[in-house]
Amino acid sequence: MDLPKIKTLIDFVARSNVTELSVTEKDVTVRIIKSVNQPSQDHRLPVNEAVQPEEQAKSVSSSAAKVHSPIFGVLHRASAPGAEPFVKLGDLVQEGQTLFIIEAMKVFNKVSAPCAGRILFLTDVDGGEVDANDLLAEIG
Fold first, then answer.
1. In the 8-state DSSP scheme, what is residue 78?
2. Checking DSSP bridges between strand 129-130 and strand 107-112, what pairing results, if any?
C-alpha cells in the first residue's frame, strides 16, 4: 500500500465518526485507531459583560441543559448564507425549536432545543466542522 492511500485513510478516520479502521491490501495491513477522548474546542460567549469569564463558565455549566453535536459535520447557524441565525445568545427558545443545522454527507440534520429556556452559551462555529459530542449551546 502506498503512502498517499494511507494518508487518505488517516484523513477519512479523522473527519468521520469511525474510531477504528483496518485495511488489508496484498500482504500489508494498515490499522488506524482514533482516540475518542480528544478534547473539543469550547468557545464561550459572554452573557453579561460584568460577569467574569471564570464565574460565568461555572454558573452556566452547573444548571444549564447542554446541547451537543449528535454527529460530525459542518455546522450552520442559519438556514442559508446571509440569513438570520436560528437563535442568538440570550434568546428565549421553546422545546423542539431548531437551533442549528449540521450538514453531513449532503444531508442536513436539524439540532433542536431539548427544553425551553434562554440561550446562555452559543458556539461561535458557523460554516465550520464540528465533531460528534462537541458542545454547541447551553439553555438555562
1. B
2. unpaired
Written as one letter, the residue type at 5 is K
Q: Is the pLDDT of residue 97 over 80?
A: yes
pLDDT mean across residues, the chain: 80
- In this prediction, residue 93 carries a pLDDT of 95
What would the mean pLDDT of 21-43 be, rounded to a whole number?
A: 68
Three-state DSSP at 109 gives strand
| CA–CA distance, 73 with 78 (Å, rounded to integer) | 15
* Sequence-ordered alpha helix ranges (H) in 16-114: 53-63
Q: Could you tell me the CA-to-CA distances from 76 to 33, 56, 106 in Å, in that order? A: 29, 25, 13
> Are 71 and 102 a contacting pair, CB within 8 Å?
yes
